[in-house]
Each structure stands twice: as C-alpha cells, then as structure tokens.
Write a structure and sequence with these properties.
The chain is of the alpha/beta class and about 250 residues long. The protein has a single domain, classed as Rossmann fold, CATH 3.40.50.300. It is built from eight helices and ten strands. It has helices spanning about 45-55, 75-85, 100-110, 115-130, 145-160, 175-195, 205, 230-249; strands at about 1-15, 20-30, 35-40, 60-65, 70, 85-90, 165-170, 195-200, 210-215, 220-225. The strands form two sheets. A six-stranded mixed sheet has the order 6-7-8-3-9-10, sandwiched between helices. The protein has a four-stranded antiparallel sheet with strand order 2-1-4-5, covered by helices on one side. A hairpin with a 2-residue loop joins strand 1 (about 1-15) and strand 2 (about 20-30). The longest helix is centred in the last third of the chain and has 19 residues, at about 230-249. The radius of gyration is 19 Å and the shape is globular.
Length: about 250
C-alpha cells in the first residue's frame, strides 16, 4: 500500500534573470514500511526533493500525498500539525539541544503532544534502551560521541512511532564503522515498527540498506531499482549459519 505519492513534482528557483530547475517532473510511489533511498551527487536535487516531501518547501508545480493527504495544499498551521502527528526527522548534524540530556531530547516530541512528564520520560528511557544508550540518559550532547548523538537522534525520531521518517545524509559526520551500526539500527527500528524511511545520500554504500533505490541526476529521476536490503541479507546469513551449526552438532 502506497504511503507517499509524488505526482509531477517540479521546483524552479529564480536567480537573477535565470531560472534553475531543481526538480523536473518527479513521479514516485513509496510503499508503507519501505526503506527508500534517494541517491545522487551534490546538486542533484535530492535534498530539495526531501524538503518537498517533508513540507519544508512548496513546489512550483505538482503534488505530494502522504497517507492520502495532499500536504502541498495544507496551510502552514495544518502542515505543522501533520508533521507533528505523522513525520519524524533524522539530521546529519544531529540537531540535539545542547542544554538538554539525552532523555530530555528524546522526550521532547512527546512533550509537544501534551504527554505528562513522567510518562514521556518513561517512554523516552525505553527508546534509549532500545538504541543501547541506557547508560547515557543523563548525558548531554557534549558528553557523547558522534555515533552516540546520532543514536539519540534516531531514538527521538522514532519515539512517537511516526508513519514516515525522513533522514538527510544521516551518517555524513560518522566514520565507516559507526555508519554501518547506525544504518543497521535505523533499518531494524523500521522493521520492528513497520515504519517508512526515506533517506537521501550520495553514498552508494548507504543505498545498500534500502529496499528501493531512486537515482536522481540534475533534478530528474533516472532510474528506480528494487533492492534486497543489506540488513535483511545479513539476517538471513546469520540464520543459515545457525542452522548449519545445529545440523553439524
């Protein structure tokens, strides 16, 4: 079942006397529970596309539907409410509040929903435990590594169980080993809660974790390919290995 539908989406910027076509007639469908990677180099239009899907920018033409709602026609007030109720975000630069602890950062989206403090902190603590940060709950961002901060960011994005998570170069500031851990964690969380993840990256290695890879060049989708996620392949290999070990015994 489609959770995101993009129809004839276009974005044109005016720079002086010139027009820059950042997006050109984008048409795309993303299914519920799907990990979709938009892959492209710098300036390809991938971040502009993500901004359109998240309702952070208005298109020049075309429509974006999420859960059947045409978000491109919502007022700012209704759009803000829709984002709060349905969307989560993971950023390259983590975007944590430095004065707050990990627990407080993760609990913040629940506070915006009007949830009582004790309840939201209990849920946030459980989410931090699920990303292996139960020993960092009282730490502030400056007391954590980049990988730990991104785990806090992931916990914050998933804490409300939003229908769709958007991730903009989520591993851009991480080393290769931490990148692998973070990608596995994001896919694992999506599989656990059957949530949709849309991420943009220039890194071909990151795209290997997606179910669908959308190639974008100069504002146009050049190809869309189905993929077996690296996360799922590794899970299968582990199960096969366990079966072989059992049979050998």
């Amino acid at each position: 079942m489609a959770i995101i539908e993009i129809k004839d989406l276009r974005k044109t910027y005016k720079l002086g006397n010139e027009r820059v076509h950042a997006l050109k007639r984008i048409n795309l469908t993303i299914e519920k529970g799907e990990i979709c990677c938009v892959l492209g180099t710098s300036g390809s239009g991938k971040s502009t596309l993500l901004n359109m899907l998240a309702g952070l920018e208005k298109p020049t033409k075309g429509s974006v539907f999420i859960k059947g709602t045409e978000i491109t026609k919502l007022s700012e007030k209704k759009l803000a409410r829709f984002r709060q109720e349905n969307l989560g975000f993971i950023f390259q630069s983590y975007n944590l509040l430095n004065q707050l602890t990990a627990l407080e950062n993760v609990a913040m989206p629940l506070m915006f929903k009007g949830m009582p403090r004790k309840r939201r902190e209990k849920i946030a603590a459980k989410m931090l435990k699920s990303v292996s940060l139960d020993n960092r709950m009282k730490h502030k961002p400056s007391q954590m590594s980049g990988g730990q901060q991104q785990r806090v960011g992931i916990a914050r994005a998933f804490v409300t169980k939003p229908s769709v998570i958007f991730a903009d170069e989520p591993t851009g500031n991480l080393d290769s080993h931490t990148t692998e851990d973070v990608m596995k964690l994001m896919v694992e969380m999506c599989r656990k809660y059957n949530l949709t993840l849309v991420l943009v990256t220039h890194d071909l290695g990151i795209s290997e974790y997606a179910d669908k890879i959308v190639h974008i060049i100069d504002g146009e989708i050049t190809s869309v390919e189905k993929n077996i996620s690296k996360y799922d392949l590794e899970k299968v290999k582990v199960k096969i290995g366990e079966r072989i070990e059992i049979n050998e015994k």
